[in-house]
Amino acid sequence: xDYQERNRIEEVKKDWESNSLxxxxxxxxxxxxxxxxxxxxxxxxxxxxxxxxxFDYIDDLGYPGEYPYTRGVQPTMYRxxxxxxRQYAGFGDAEESNKRYKYLLKNGQTGLxxxxxxxxxxxxxxxxxxxxxxxxxVGVAIDTLEDMEILFNGIPLDQVSTSMTINAPAAVLxxxxxxxxxxxxxxxxxxxxxxxxDILKEYIARGTYIFPPLPSMRLITDIxxxxxxxxxxxxxxxxxxxxxxxxxxxxxxxxxxxxxxxxSYVTAAxxxxxxxxxxAPRLSFFFNAHNDLFEEVAKFRAARRLWAKIMKERFxxxxxxxxxxxxxxxxxxxxxxxxxxDNNVVRVAIQALAAVLGGTQSLxxxxxxxALSLPSQKSVRIALRTQQxxxxxxxxxxxxxxxxxxxxxxxxxxxxxxxxxxxxxxxDKLGGxxxxxxxxxxxxxxxxxxxxxxxxxxxxxxxxxGVNQFxxxxxxxxxxxxxxxxxxKRQVEKLSKxxxxxxxxxxxxxxxxxxxxxxxxxxxxxxxxxxxxxYATLGEICDQLRAVFGExxxxxxx
Amino acid sequence: MKNARIRVLVAKPGxxxxxxxxxxxxxxxxxxxxxxxxxxxxxxxxxxxxTAIQEDVNVIGLSILSGAHMYLFPKIMELLxxxxxxxxxxxxxxxxxxxxxxELKKIGIKExxxxxxxxxxxxxxxxENIKIA
Lengths: 558, 133
Fold this sequence. Notes:
Chain A is an alpha/beta fold. In chain A, 50% of the residues lie in helices and 7% in strands. Chain A contains 22 helices and twelve strands. In chain A, helix 10 packs parallel to helix 12 (293-314) and helix 20 (504-518) runs parallel beside helix 22. By secondary structure, chain B is an alpha/beta fold. Chain B has helices at residues 20-31, 45-54, 69-82, 98-106, 119-129, and strands spanning 7-11, 35-38, 59-64, 89-94, 111-113.
């Protein structure tokens, strides 16, 4: 903006303030003294070109598909191809989940997203004492390759992309996926999908860790290394802010802590000698879409810009694909209310809109009943339809990055980027994300935000419709999904049958070999593949690794 | 007993890692003047009951969002009776469907707070039900 233009705007603004604005303010005060975003950042009365004085279109935004990717990672974005509609699903046993996947695919879903139950996520077989009561509850129970065979029965793996929410035992589940592809006669190079494989956020926010950080990072870099050779289309990690946000972080904290974790993975891989431009193009991200529409759109754009700069400037990446932040989004589960649950459909629609306006590559929309139980089939359908309405009816997908240039949005984008960068600098000073986690810094920051959010609701500084205002008497919601309580028994029986059938000698040989390799410098992936092919159980495989790596114990501070 | 404070064990039974609610409530109870012990994640019913007895708490607050409450909560209640500690007030919170709430109250869980509950309501409930001289 040139000097003259700025003066002219400043003059008109002054006039507007003394004439129009002040007259109104004298008569009617505003609703609140200060207005804030969903993350407690103060919001001005209005934004104008004076807020974007340092804004440079080419440097700050540029064109989509080009550095710094603020406007999106593809030149045509949704005009070329809509985002992947990917509903996270899985419950009970493999048969039931297989049915739900086929139902979703039939209804126009375009990718699978597998939810595993907690014993699977923590590397326990369904027969383990710690698994009692948890089998098949928050996802599908997987003990051996046989369960995975049933899970993907009738689903050709070269025709779907599959995202698996699995972290500590990610290598094992990936190996099982590869083994089914072998059985279906599909070459590994055709496999398309993602494993979450993001252990750092498990220590921070999600809690399904098994091993201590150091060996966990080694497993992750082994996967990077293996996949860069064998599964070139596979996303080897989904660096996740979603759970960090769900634990109570603000938008800035979500971006900051996620990218700080990303920096740690890149550092670990390059220290191991991997070439950044070989593995970095397969890194992907996973973010939350919360209630504040503008702040969320700005957050996604800020994340893309910041990651591009980090990859280029800090790590010296050369390949454009290494600098592109591609991400999946899920609407914010923590915003769903148990009160008047149908209202959640509206919340989810606004959050999903934010994800689309922010340029997401894939999206999960939550179901209205998830503050009460696992979602029913009907609720899941409404959630999927919500995405389809945004895609086909709202018109927002017809042009690239439609909100760019909004004074407010661009200002927010810059503020979020700067705020996140401040945190990343602090974390660097502490020695990186693993050290900051060890010292409880990241956890403490999130807990403080979570507590403030709760207090704001209780003081009515933040209004949640149906919770602290506009309450109404209501009938309890009906037709909630119930997981069959017989599942656990059935799963344990199935497991013991598999154990009877398999070649025990071969299993033991493979398990011993894995233990040896885990204790060496060699890549564990081939040894894990041998184990799963011989129907060694997830628990047995993880026990071998536990024996070598040890187990992580959380040191709790509140 | 002068200045006696209510002692509360906030516990996460099972494999569930969602501890935002448990931590927020632990802090709110502490701010309300109670002594709060938080177990951390992945506690077995045995561990929870043992800690509750060792720490001589007045209240156990159980938090679970994984759907395993119908197995884990009754187990904890049984163990409390077995260990002669049934006088401890047990309350719970999380994603717990209505029909389960009815069942859980029958086995002695005094109150179940679902998402959206004001922490002051929980503080009041505890103070009403625990009288320390």
